[in-house]
Design a protein that fits this description.
The complex is a heterodimer.
Chain A (H helix, E strand, L loop, with lengths): L4 E8 L8 H12 L4 H22 L1 E8 L3 E8 L7 H4 L9 H4 L8 H8 L2 E7 L3 E9 L2
Antiparallel strand pairs in A: 1-2, 2-3, 3-5, 4-5
Helix pairs in contact in A: 1-2, 2-5
Chain B lengths: L7 E3 L9 H5 L5 E4 L2 E4 L9 H5 L5 E3 L12 E6 L1 H4 L8 H10 L4 E2 L2 H16 L8 E2 L4 H10 L13 H16 L8 E7 L2 H10 L9 E4 H11 L14 H5 L5 H4 L6 E5 L1 H12 L8 E5 L15 H12 L38 H17 L13 H10 L8 H9 L3
Parallel strand pairs in B: 5-6, 5-8, 7-11, 8-9, 10-11
Antiparallel strand pairs in B: 1-4, 2-3
Helix pairs in contact in B: 5-7, 14-15
The chains are: A alpha+beta, B alpha/beta.
């Protein structure tokens, strides 16, 4: 078993247009590891939604992508306001994004549901006023 | 892919080893080795961006020639609609078509005519039950190759319909054989007058795979001056044009999409924009549309590197040329219920994704870890002085070649100045 590979990215919270950059870099690395295109697509959607969430709600954060021979794990960590009601946040269409953000086409309330849909396991640790960590796992086998 | 025949080539004598092409190649296919550019055949998609950018004209497109058409008894020209946009004060497409006959063609068949059929096929295709939407147009061969190289998960979304040029070639040959029963099929030659090297590569590499009927691809820039001399306003001309606004509109970005009529669409042009859009599609981050038109060249086909005119001027000319044309002059025959079978291709060109680093996942992971280590040692200014487009690419090159240490001129200079 080889050492896990870790890709680390800072997600800049001030800039909507740069959101999605980390997902582009990750895709390239995963392609070069020879991962199946469908797996790469799932990782990139999950990653992208997570990035956007951090930009909208938490002024950015950090993303780690950990690759082992069995799975790709995405860990998104922010120091934002935390999620008050995780169960509600998981419902499709539920969003606390401001109307100005929604007018940009974000905040449709599909972020977390999509992250769950495209990953095999998802875990949310959140504390109000402290921040949120989302872990997603996409199995390779 | 082994043995891929590229149409974008380097003129070594003119190359100064400057890093312009290196920095602009969208697939990082270029390296500077021993002071000259070198193109990696596996990664090059023949987009022509390096031709557009090279300040020394050291990149060129290789294509077919009009002389090669002499091998045929009956010669048919297939003008791309972008050809019409090359001429100042052109108010009637027939001048161009008559000009083509004067320079030696027996017949012309407009690609824009076939484009009107392809537009209708596409409209029907989108409404077919069970189709995964959105679909991506197959018309730009550079985009198809790009998707197969960098976005393999989207390759299924490409519409499996032949592009207008091939549909035109088939229709032209069929029509010629009907009109001239004395001709054998192999005596009829079809010559595409092309705006881009992408189509040259498409024909030279996939003639067999797609059973292409195009025999020769000649640059617009090669016929331009011949045509200028042959086109005479005062002479009476034959009425030849058989296409409308829709077909001619395919020459510029958005034209193919507007021909889809009522369906939601997205159209992007310019290779960097296309890559950005493909990344967003892959991330699931696009508005709900049914059709996606992607053109590698800025402005669409009018921006091809084998044209002579600035794409924006071309676009403007096309607009005035289209103004008095009927919307469309071609319709599928009454009673034809669905897209004819011969308009489809069965398999897409060889799936050629970016190479995996090592022979196994474990080996690839170790190599990736080495790449990261090397990359962190490098200055990160992506200056190109080492011959690779970015520090990341340099790290990858070293690791792929089995090396362990970076070979970076900036690092060496730093070490010298620090007296190490």
């Amino acid at each position: 078993m080889s050492e896990p590979l870790v890709f680390h990215y800072d997600v800049d919270g001030s800039d909507f247009t740069s959101a999605g950059q980390a997902s582009v870099f990750v895709k390239r690395n995963l392609r070069q590891l020879g991962l199946d295109p469908e797996i790469i697509r799932r990782v990139s959607i999950a990653m992208y939604e997570g990035e956007i969430n951090m930009v909208i709600h938490a002024e950015g954060g950090e993303a780690d992508v950990i690759v082992t021979e069995d799975a790709v794990e995405i860990v998104l960590k922010d120091h934002g306001p935390g999620i008050a009601d995780v169960e509600k946040a998981m419902q499709e269409g539920y969003s606390t994004a401001t109307s100005s953000i929604q007018s940009l086409g974000f905040g449709a309330g599909m972020g977390l549901p999509n992250m769950k849909r495209y990953s095999d396991e998802m875990q949310i640790d959140t504390e109000l006023g402290v921040g949120t960590t989302v872990r997603m796992k996409i199995r390779l086998t | 892919m082994e043995g891929y025949r590229h149409s974008v080539l380097l003129d070594k004598d003119k190359c100064t080893g400057c890093t312009t092409c290196l920095q602009h190649c969208p697939t990082e296919a270029i390296r500077i080795v021993d002071g000259k550019a070198r193109i990696d055949s596996d990664r090059c998609i023949d987009c022509g961006e390096c031709i557009r950018r090279c300040p020394h004209q050291a990149k060129k497109a290789s294509a077919g020639s009009l002389e090669n058409m002499q091998r045929f008894r009956y010669k048919i020209a297939l003008p791309a609609p972008s050809l019409y946009a090359q001429f100042d004060n052109l108010d009637d497409i027939d001048y161009v078509l008559n000009g083509l006959k004067k320079i030696g063609f027996d017949e012309v068949f407009e690609v824009s005519k076939a484009a009107e059929f392809v537009s209708e096929y596409t409209r029907r295709y989108i409404r077919t039950e069970g189709i995964r939407l959105p679909v991506i147009s197959s018309a730009c061969p550079v985009v198809v190759r790009l998707i197969n190289l960098l976005f393999p998960s989207l390759s299924e979304s490409i519409i499996h319909l032949h592009p207008p040029v091939e549909v035109a070639a088939r229709m032209a040959k069929k029509r010629a054989m009907e009109a001239h029963p004395e001709l054998k099929e192999e005596e009829i030659g079809v010559c595409f007058i092309s705006p881009c090297p992408g189509k040259v590569s498409y024909v030279s590499n996939y003639k067999e795979l797609y059973d292409l009927h195009i025999d020769e691809v000649v640059p617009i820039s090669d016929v331009y001056f011949l045509l200028i001399n042959a086109m005479k306003r005062e002479e009476a001309i034959e009425s030849l044009s058989e296409s409308g606004m829709i077909g001619v509109g395919w020459a510029s970005s958005g034209g193919e999409s507007t021909a889809i009529l009522n369906e939601g669409y997205l159209a992007a042009d310019g290779i960097d924009n296309v890559i950005r859009v493909l990344n967003q599609i892959e991330d699931g981050n696009i508005p709900p549309v049914n059709f996606i038109e992607l053109n590698a060249c800025p402005g669409g086909c009018v921006g091809g590197v084998m044209t002579v005119q600035n794409p924006f001027i071309s676009k403007s000319r096309l607009q005035s040329l289209r103004r008095y044309l009927p919307v469309s002059m071609n319709r599928m025959p009454e009673g034809e219920r669905y897209i004819p079978q011969e308009a489809f291709f069965n398999k897409i060109e060889e799936f050629a994704p970016e190479r995996r680093l090592g022979s196994s996942m474990a080996e690839s992971m170790r190599m990736m870890s080495d790449i990261q280590r090397l990359k962190n040692m490098l200055p990160g200014i992506d200056c190109g002085a080492c011959g690779a487009p970015t520090c990341r690419a340099h790290a990858e090159d070293i690791v792929r070649a089995g090396g362990q240490e970076p070979d970076c001129p900036i690092l060496k200079a730093r070490m010298l100045s620090e007296g190490k």
